[in-house]
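Lab meeting, item 3. Inverse folding demo.
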């Protein structure tokens, strides 16, 4: 199964979670406010319920989501605005931090490279924006690629990116799922 299919299935699972109308904690209904661990668990459940995955998906500490024999995936959420519609402080900083052991996308790439197993490895960013975006995720996604390539010498595959719009949350109206296969590191 190729990464594009996995990203498509993740995006479809997120839309289904959004359509359920179940709010996360006391936030407004919609998929946007969910925390990373809760969101990954719900995505795993949706994938496992499908015939394509049929129970092969597990959530773990590392990787966040394992598709046995196929993919080890680490997830990050990019949310420029909070549930209340106010710009979130430092929303992009943790995604870009270029050091091992950090909770960034770059740190996740390094963690995946150290992971044993036969699965291919990828990082996945789930981002939420207004329609049209008030703060575009495009510079963040390009910065991840630039830091990986130019600073940490991590070799990523081409970006797979899908969008889904018309989500029910008034702030997190559209989602972007971007993923890169983590292929190696020159350092």
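The presenter then showed the designed sequence:
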């Amino acid at each position: 199964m190729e990464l594009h299919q996995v990203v498509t299935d993740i995006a479809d699972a997120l839309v289904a979670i959004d359509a359920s109308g179940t709010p996360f904690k006391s936030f407004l209904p919609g998929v946007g406010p969910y925390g990373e661990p809760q969101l990954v668990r719900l995505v795993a459940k949706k994938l496992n319920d499908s015939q394509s995955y049929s129970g092969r998906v597990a959530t773990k500490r590392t990787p966040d989501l394992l598709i046995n024999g196929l993919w080890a995936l680490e997830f990050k959420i990019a949310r420029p605005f909070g549930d209340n519609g106010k710009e979130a402080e430092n929303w992009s900083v943790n995604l870009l931090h270029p050091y091992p052991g950090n909770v960034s996308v770059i740190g996740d790439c390094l963690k995946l490279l150290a992971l044993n197993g036969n699965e291919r490895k990828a990082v996945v960013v789930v981002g939420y924006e207004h329609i049209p975006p008030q703060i575009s995720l495009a510079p963040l996604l390009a910065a991840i690629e630039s830091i990986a390539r130019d600073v940490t010498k991590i070799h990523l595959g081409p970006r797979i990116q899908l969008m889904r719009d018309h989500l029910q949350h008034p702030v997190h109206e559209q989602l972007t799922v971007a993923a890169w296969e983590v292929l190696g590191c020159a350092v």
